Amino acid sequence: FHHNTTFNYFCKVAFFNCWIVALTTLLCPLVALVVGRSVENMKILCAAIQPLKHFYGIKMQVWGSEHLDLKEPYVIVCNHQASLDLLGMVEVIPKRCVPIAKKELLYLGTVGWACWLSGIIFIDRHRTDAAIDVLSQTARTMWRENLRVWVFPEGTRNPDKPMLPFKRGAFHLAVQAQVPIFPIVISPYRDFFSSKEKRFSPGTCTIRILPKVETQGLSPKDVPRLTETVRQAMADALAEMSVN
């Protein structure tokens, strides 16, 4: 374990997955019976994941957390590098905030059950009409329940430095709900984590929360420009963090 980097990597990844499965298996029946489905259950899910950063020796640095003090609904967009993003997300996720996830996650046993109980919003990426309908419902729910929504607009994991083109769903949602967007950028993991090189060591992860981007008065025709503006701001921040 201490001398073979590849063996070390697989042990840590296996422990990561086993930890989440074990805790969701233990907690889900209790939460289902006592609370039921509620966005407030995200607190429990986050509390179950947070200790992992200590086990792996990952230090979290957060810049700009004051930006998320807004009491009203908003949309968070964040870059997506690996499953390790979970550690960054639970570090900064505000109250009454739920991620949008692919529908396939719902069928991952107790993990899917835990996500459903926590109010996570599921989208069928293969059915555009159904996805649009879910986003429309979410836009109405955000104001009614004072909900924040977390989205990975790249749509898939991207461990490489250049960000992938953004999908526009998060931006359509923000414009439809007329709520601001908060871009969040997680620094590259390459100094301590690489799935290609099978390397997973202690390190420091920096999370930068950028100032909000307003959508008041914007319409669907403004979404392409809004998407590119936010993506460029995040790409610039990522490039700056990659140098430091």
TrEMBL record:
GO terms for cellular component: endoplasmic reticulum; membrane. It catalyses: a 1-acyl-sn-glycero-3-phosphate + an acyl-CoA = a 1,2-diacyl-sn-glycero-3-phosphate + CoA; 1-eicosanoyl-sn-glycero-3-phosphate + (9Z)-octadecenoyl-CoA = 1-eicosanoyl-2-(9Z)-octadecenoyl-sn-glycero-3-phosphate + CoA; (11Z)-octadecenoyl-CoA + 1-(9Z-octadecenoyl)-sn-glycero-3-phosphate = 1-(9Z)-octadecenoyl-2-(11Z)-octadecenoyl-sn-glycero-3-phosphate + CoA; 1-tetradecanoyl-sn-glycerol 3-phosphate + (9Z)-octadecenoyl-CoA = 1-tetradecanoyl-2-(9Z)-octadecenoyl-sn-glycero-3-phosphate + CoA. One of its GO terms (biological process) is phosphatidic acid biosynthetic process. Pathway: Phospholipid metabolism; CDP-diacylglycerol biosynthesis; CDP-diacylglycerol from sn-glycerol 3-phosphate: step 2/3. Keywords: Acyltransferase, Lipid biosynthesis, Lipid metabolism, Membrane, Phospholipid biosynthesis, Phospholipid metabolism, Transferase, Transmembrane, Transmembrane helix. The chain crosses the membrane at residues 14-35. Its EC number is 2.3.1.51. Residues 74-189 form the Phospholipid/glycerol acyltransferase domain. One of its GO terms (molecular function) is 1-acylglycerol-3-phosphate O-acyltransferase activity. It comes from the Eukaryota. CDD domains: LPLAT_AGPAT-like. It is an enzyme of class 2 (transferase). Converts 1-acyl-sn-glycerol-3-phosphate (lysophosphatidic acid or LPA) into 1,2-diacyl-sn-glycerol-3-phosphate (phosphatidic acid or PA) by incorporating an acyl moiety at the sn-2 position of the glycerol backbone. The HXXXXD motif is essential for acyltransferase activity and may constitute the binding site for the phosphate moiety of the glycerol-3-phosphate. Belongs to the 1-acyl-sn-glycerol-3-phosphate acyltransferase family. This is 1-acyl-sn-glycerol-3-phosphate acyltransferase.
